[in-house]
Design brief:
Oligomer: single chain
Radius of gyration: 23 Å
CATH superfamily of the largest domain: P-loop containing nucleotide triphosphate hydrolases
Distance between the termini: 37 Å
Mean pLDDT: 80
Strand content: 5-15%
CATH class of the largest domain: Alpha Beta
Number of domains: 3
Number of strands: 9
Order of helices and strands: EEHHHEHEHEHEEHHEHEHHHH
Strand order of the largest sheet: 5-4-6-3-7-8-9
CATH topology of the largest domain: Rossmann fold
Number of helices: 13
Helix content: 40-55%
Length: 367
């Protein structure tokens, strides 16, 4: 990593510089190459947290950039920002939206978000875009498909790369939700990648899990095998308009029948199956009414508080797992033993479970 060219600035892995502290009244100087392409993180974590709580959307965007950063120099600042922000978080309705590619998730969120803004809500959208396993790059084009919502001052849309994380969500989606809540947004919509069978991780991050289906895509029975229908709180067959209206209604009935194979506990929420059209807006109001009924039921039965506790535990478990992976990599990443055992496993001379046990034991992680 390059040496910073001046105090209070640190370079990231690509050599760009970030301001870690801004002295009040002193303008931030241009970068070594000049020009506006130089990015900065304004202020200390305390200044950034105060700006986020005051509703500064620019500060919110910078805060999410900070917590998503992989640069070691940003880790301490990101942790401090979260420590300051978390007490102000937790007040939003968290809704996860998933579905197969082509189900119209972005268009649906655009229509739903506009309706919520018109009703006086402040809506944050965290959209996860798939990353290339080869280049690690992402297009981050979901915001362009939310043209109407992106023009609303009550809305905040943040596309983030999945960075090849499993589960359809980004590495720091949980933290981003907390920042959005601290920023005063009372509805947070999390749009998953839409890859199919791994879309269940978001279920542990949100209060309501909505699955979008397509007519004739075989989702009604395939979904049970994937476990998505089993976890869904609401289901909606999208694109129920024009010539597709009849097919969508047929699919809605088929999904409803498929749900009878699942027996919810006594008094538990029975997921409704609706039909809607994001293109025309039909059924969007009914769907959000169903979401509100679900929240009412969850609060009355105590399921809402229990799910929040489960989310907090899942967040803790995920961070512990990440910390253990980093600790292991720090101890054994480039060791001779790692190279030796890896070579044996690749050559078929050593079973992978045995190789893993040896490496974990050498790193001090014994069971």
């Amino acid at each position: 990593m390059n040496t910073p060219s001046r105090p209070d600035w640190v370079p990231d892995d690509a050599g760009r510089e970030f301001a870690t502290r801004v002295v009040p009244g002193r303008p931030v100087p241009p970068g070594p190459r000049g020009g506006p392409a130089l990015r900065r993180l304004d202020g200390s974590p305390a200044v950034l947290a105060a700006a986020i709580r005051a509703g500064d959307r620019g500060a919110l965007a910078r805060g999410i950039t900070l917590i998503e950063s992989l640069a070691p120099a940003h880790r301490v600042a990101a942790d401090e920002l979260l420590r300051l922000i978390v007490p102000s978080a937790g007040g939003a309705l968290r809704v996860g939206i998933t579905g197969v590619p082509g189900a119209g998730k972005s268009t649906f969120i655009d229509a739903l978000g506009v309706r919520l803004c018109d009703a006086g809500r402040r809506v944050a959208v965290l959209s996860v875009d798939p990353s290339s396993p080869v280049t690690r790059g992402s297009i981050l084009g979901d915001k362009t498909r939310m043209e109407n919502l992106s023009r609303r001052p009550q809305a905040f849309i943040r596309p983030s790369p999945s960075a090849c994380e499993l589960g359809g969500v980004a590495r720091r989606t949980r933290e981003s939700i907390s920042l959005c809540e601290a920023g005063g947004f009372d509805v947070v919509l999390v749009e998953t990648v839409g890859v199919g069978q791994s879309e269940v991780l978001v279920r542990g991050m949100v209060d309501c899990f909505l699955v979008l289906l397509l007519a004739g895509a075989g989702d009604e029975l395939q979904g049970i095998k994937k476990g998505i229908l089993e976890l869904a709180d609401l289901l909606a067959v999208n694109k129920a308009d024009g010539d597709n209206r009849v097919r969508a209604e047929t699919a809605r009935r088929e999904v409803g029948r498929a749900l009878h194979y699942l027996s919810p506990p006594e008094g538990a929420w029975q997921p409704p199956v609706l039909a809607c059209s994001a293109a025309t807006g039909e059924g969007i109001a009914d769907l959000w009414s169903a979401v509100e009924r679900f929240f009412g039921h969850a609060r009355d039965t105590g399921a809402f508080d229990e799910r929040r506790r489960t989310q907090a535990q899942a967040w803790l478990d995920a961070l512990i797992g990440e910390g253990l992976r980093e600790a292991y990599a720090g101890r054994m990443g480039a060791s001779d033993l790692t190279a030796e055992i890896s070579a044996q496993v690749r050559a078929g001379l050593l079973p992978a479970p045995e190789g893993a046990r040896r490496l974990l034991a050498a790193a001090g992680f014994t069971t």
